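Reopening this ticket.

The earlier resolution said the output was attached, but the attachment link was broken on my side. Pasting everything inline this time so it's all in one place.
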Amino acid sequence: MPPVILVVAEVAAGHLARLSTEAATFARDLAAEAGGSVLGVIVDSDPGVAAGELAAYLPRVVAVTAPSIATELPAPHILTEVRRLVDEGVTHVVLGASVDGRDVAGALVAFTGWGYLANADSAAWSGEAPVMTSNVLAGKAVVHSTLATAKGVLTVRPMSVTAAEAGAVGVVEARSASGEPAIPAVVVLDRVTEGGAAVSLEEARVVVTGGRGVGSIEGFAVVEDLADALGGVVGASRAAVDAGWIPYARQVGQTGRIVKPALYLSLGVSGAMQHRVGMQNSETIVAVNKDPDAPMAEVADLFVIGDLFEVAPALAAEIRSRRS
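Inline output:
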């Protein structure tokens, strides 16, 4: 029987999350290889806009209005709607490897007994099952995995797939939430927005990252100024985060965010493997470091040997002068 693949999409500030566009492309290609079908689901207090955006990637989108998500964590409500679609014939579920995606994936596996393939970088259909490819051990090894069950759940690693719209816009089917969530919902008592996070690291086209070489909280002013001149977002290495110079939300790397901007500019980042796996797929990589033997040179398109406190201000000034 051909598979029926469901993409569980996420909403960010009322719109379709970037990771969900990648998951939709991943699932659509996988379904085409398998000779199966693909659909998506959006579960939100107001899913209309995001569902319309998802329809650009998939032939059918189920938009579920769940008012409780406005005041509760979404995962329990999403799980309930995914189980309903499983009862309607879905055989495989694809989610982004985000916080909510992992929550839903784990609970779904517990409820269904299906197999689980986590953190896919790519996948191909072979015989009766998908075969997932994933980089592990900080990029030092590649693992190929397949399901031991006829049905299963896959999560897609951020930035591993290049999102591409389908040739035609799909149909959006509106539904109401089916009832109480399958597991207890968690009430959100307060929401705090991180200062300076108007654009997330994952969405940014330019990321300027500071590392151990920045030296202090005050040193990050240079990083922030260059990011501002370039219209980019500030990132950080784990060393800078561990030193308390910048919040964890800015961390790029294996234990932080995976980014794929058009320009990644690092200042004082040595470039350990754990950091590089989080940014090495960027379109253009520029690194500034006093150490000519820094590992970042291995992935940089342009490696500048120099003092970041001299190079970064000069670069910011030159960029601004050309815009004036």
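Reporter confirms the inline version is readable. The domain at 206-323 is CATH 3.40.50.1220 (Rossmann fold). The helical segments are 18-34, 48-54, 75-87, 99-112, 220-230, 238-242, 273-276, 308-323.
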